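ARCHIVE CARD
Drawer: 12
Card no.: 0347
Subject: one protein chain, sequence and derived structure
Cross-reference: see card 0346
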Amino acid sequence: ESVNSQDLYRHIAQHASSFDALFYGPYLFGTTLWGALIAPERSILIPCLHDEAYAYQEVVASMFRQVKGCLFNAHPEMELARSIYGDVPGGVVGMGFNLPKPAEVESLEPYFEDSFPYILYLGRKETGKNVHLLIDSFCEAKENRLIPDNVRLAIHGGGSYDDLHRPEALTRGDVIDLPHVSERDKQRLLTHALYLCQPSTNESFSIVIMESWMVGTPVVVHSNCAVTRHHVVESGGGLYFSSSEDLAGVTKYFLSDSAARSRHAQAGARYVAAEYAWPAVLERFDKTLENLGSDRAHGTVVS
């Protein structure tokens, strides 16, 4: 009962032979599950795979085992796929970014008129993104006097809050539920945040982490998310948490040591420039496609 298109499937069946490769993603959509199997010898998944119940269904496993290969967003995502489905051909490509010029970042003035340190969350307001855990952890840390009174939590994103344990948190004053803002204002929020917090445990990449590093802001991620923790550990661009005590610890660390905060942010920026500027991504894209072509000829798997 997912999104489907019979017209699309007929078009693929009629014209698949005109293409070297057909790309499908994310893995959960009906148009991916069924479209990719029309001409599996030309089908390449960009799965955006998470460690969730859907990933273990046999219909999904069958698709992964029949297609030509996969383009993964991160190494932990590829490792997850191979742990579930076996030696899935493909490689890590990731997403590309146009790096901002220093002058562009310097022109981003503070979003808030008043000056105060704030933790920033950018993402959908739903339990699937763990925003409720971030709110709970922030409130608990404040109530236990582990975070200074002047620190606030700013939240921006679409959707509505699901099953908040503390609905009163949105009226207490130190949790700011922001309205929709422009792209430039989002960049202003990122640039002047104490740090960006990405609490989700189901991510295959996380664009907002890269956006944060590109404007010079460190990130804090959930310790149980293999992909975002991989980014943080590999880059040195931030820290991770799993409890209100952890959140308080990293907050006090960034508040008390501006030089360390800057080092983490700069490390993250170098990581984006080295790994996710367009030239690096396109090189991996070309190499992976070339290797997938040789996979069919020689029956080998690209590591």
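Annotation on reverse: The mean pLDDT is 93. The chain has twelve helices and ten strands.
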